């Protein structure tokens, strides 16, 4: 009896201790600009979304009941017809910007901006501000409502009279707001200045909260890289004047060269069922040299989502816990009733789950798979006749670089991928190519991609031989260019290796592996080869695919490299495998 009692005590104690630890990032990989909300009416569940820029589907909705385990339950931007313009805008820094997720009166609302960075800053059509609504976060979201509003990163706040005020940050000058009807998009009064910030560069991601009869304006300043920070001001009136916190910034990693987590900022605040305050925000796992010289930093997983507990004393400004990989302290994480830490609803998987996708007949493409811009849906077909348990890819004319490393003019690029969710991982597929590739420059393979100017790939391609007949080669290559990177660090690579004779009649297996936190390997071999039997054809340094705004994805592509029209050939991908090995 005593042994049983002690075992029960230690079991309960272990459970309590586990509930006192947070492991960051909670949404690993490409998950920037998070916004979260707790909804008691939906079984005490937390919901979060993040920005997605030029990737589709966009605005993923993650749900959790314990703040530790997060499941993809829907995508608010899941239908091409919702925002077809995304297929035509230029630049990897364009697309779906920072969203805000809120819940009120039975309705979930996301406000965000579709940005076109190719337009001049003074052109107000550069920012298309939009509203998504749904009454079911596990299902489809409504078509977006467009409204006229200056700036980016809109966020709704309902005052005591029930009027919804939308804040935005305008032309790097500060915060503006106006009342907006969230079901029609009608702006009922002109936008007016709310707060100019503390003077830091690039103010963005403004949110307004009311607590203890104070209105608090939360802001990100300093730009989204090494000087990123969280600032705050408050006023007795929603319309100001606002007085900044005496100890701004309230949270930052700037000049903290000992922290692995850098670029900390872009925060949103929410409470749980017990009234505990929490903050989510973005960070990069780049290490201290990022603060010293961001041009030398290595963080291809991009901007990720962290969670920290917050103390918010009555009548005071909030106190944020500094971001670290493991956070323990005097706080209690939610303890969901029942066995499920994530909802059973929703059609996705855990954010850090592995992939073992066999493309079974009748199964849809998994909802966590991503396309670059709006896909041409006819270029992707699950389990076609005579090729069961495979994904048929019709080739695009454009390769991953597109016209200029920046644009595709709506033509589409055949590439389907998933987020890199682990510091160390392996991704591999099998490709049936022998009867598909017939002409010079046709190519299929696997790639790791940030955007059109930052990607590396390995594939099989046909090239004209001296006898003018196409011969198969393994091609390893890519491009690493960023406006944030010094010119001498850019790289363009292409290495062709004649396909070994005993591989010519075989399906081929291609693999990308993060062999450590700084390098990726690219390998290939005939189907039947074990991982250790694959031949490595090249390596890429992680700092060549450092993101500007997003993060790395890995997937498969098919292209004629500009030689032929759309759908020049069809090729078949099977046994899609992603295995996370370790978080660092």
From TrEMBL:
GO terms for molecular function: hydrolase activity, hydrolyzing O-glycosyl compounds. The keyword Signal applies. GO terms for biological process: carbohydrate metabolic process. CDD domains: GH43_PcXyl-like. It holds the Pfam family GH43_C2. The record marks 153 as: Important for catalytic activity, responsible for pKa modulation of the active site Glu and correct orientation of both the proton donor and substrate. Gene3D superfamilies: 2.60.120.200, Glycosyl hydrolase domain, family 43. Residues 1-18 form the signal peptide. Keywords: Glycosidase, Hydrolase, Signal. SUPFAM superfamilies: Arabinanase/levansucrase/invertase (SSF75005), Concanavalin A-like lectins/glucanases (SSF49899). Transmembrane segments: none annotated. Residues 383-563 form the Beta-xylosidase C-terminal Concanavalin A-like domain. Belongs to the glycosyl hydrolase 43 family. This is Glycoside hydrolase family 43 protein. The lineage of its organism: Eukaryota, Fungi, Dikarya, Ascomycota, Pezizomycotina.
């Amino acid at each position: 009896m005593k042994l049983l009692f002690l075992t029960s005590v230690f079991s309960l104690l272990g459970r309590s201790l586990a509930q006192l630890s947070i492991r960051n990032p909670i949404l690993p990989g490409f998950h920037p600009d998070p916004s979260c909300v707790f909804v008691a009416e939906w079984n005490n569940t937390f919901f979060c979304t993040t920005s997605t820029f030029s990737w589709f589907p966009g605005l993923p909705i993650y749900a959790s009941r314990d703040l530790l385990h997060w499941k993809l339950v829907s995508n608010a931007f899941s239908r091409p017809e919702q925002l077809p313009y995304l297929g035509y805008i230029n630049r990897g820094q364009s697309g779906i910007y920072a969203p805000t997720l809120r819940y009120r009166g039975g309705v979930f609302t996301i406000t965000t901006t579709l940005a076109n960075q190719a337009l001049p800053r003074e052109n107000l059509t550069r920012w298309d501000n939009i509203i998504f609504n749904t009454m079911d976060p596990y299902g489809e979201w409504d078509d977006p409502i467009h409204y006229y509003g200056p700036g980016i990163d809109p966020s709704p706040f309902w005052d005591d009279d029930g009027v919804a005020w939308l804040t935005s940050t305008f032309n790097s000058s500060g915060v503006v707001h106006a009342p907006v009807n969230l079901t029609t998009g009608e702006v009922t009064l002109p936008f007016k200045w709310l707060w100019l910030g503390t003077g830091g560069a690039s103010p963005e991601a403004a949110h307004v909260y009311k607590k203890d009869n104070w209105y608090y304006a939360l802001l990100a300043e300093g730009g989204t890289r090494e000087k990123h920070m969280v600032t705050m001001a408050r006023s007795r009136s929603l319309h100001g004047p606002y007085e900044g916190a005496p100890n701004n910034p309230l949270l930052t990693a700037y000049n903290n060269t000992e922290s692995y987590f850098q670029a900390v900022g872009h925060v949103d605040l929410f409470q749980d069922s017990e009234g505990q305050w929490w903050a989510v925000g973005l960070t990069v796992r780049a290490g201290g040299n990022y603060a010293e010289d961001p041009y030398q930093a290595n963080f291809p997983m991009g901007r990720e989502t962290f969670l920290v507990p917050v103390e918010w004393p009555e009548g005071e400004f909030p106190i944020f816990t500094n971001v670290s990989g493991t956070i323990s302290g005097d706080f209690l994480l939610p303890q969901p009733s029942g066995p499920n830490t994530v909802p059973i609803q929703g059609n996705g998987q855990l954010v850090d789950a592995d992939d073992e996708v066999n493309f079974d007949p009748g199964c849809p493409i998994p909802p966590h798979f991503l396309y670059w811009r709006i896909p041409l849906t006819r270029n992707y077909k699950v389990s076609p006749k005579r090729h069961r348990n495979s994904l048929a890819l019709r080739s695009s004319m454009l390769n991953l670089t597109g016209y200029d490393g920046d644009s595709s003019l709506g033509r589409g690029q055949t590439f389907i991928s998933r987020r890199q969710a682990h510091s160390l991982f392996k991704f591999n597929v099998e490709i049936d190519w022998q009867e598909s590739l017939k002409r010079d420059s046709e190519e299929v393979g696997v790639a790791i991609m940030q955007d059109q100017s930052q990607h590396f790939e390995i594939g099989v391609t046909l090239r004209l031989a001296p006898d003018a007949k196409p011969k198969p080669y393994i091609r390893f290559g890519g491009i690493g260019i960023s406006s944030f990177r010094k010119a001498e660090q850019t790289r363009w690579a292409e290495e062709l290796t004649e396909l070994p004779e005993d591989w010519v009649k075989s399906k081929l297996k291609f693999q990308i592996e993060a062999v450590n936190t700084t390098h990726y390997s690219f390998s290939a071999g005939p189907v039947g080869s074990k991982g250790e039997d694959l031949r490595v054809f090249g390596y890429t340094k992680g700092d060549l695919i450092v993101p500007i705004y997003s993060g790395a994805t890995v997937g498969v592509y098919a292209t004629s490299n500009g030689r032929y029209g759309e759908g020049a050939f069809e090729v078949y991908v099977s046994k899609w495998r992603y295995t996370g090995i370790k978080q660092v």
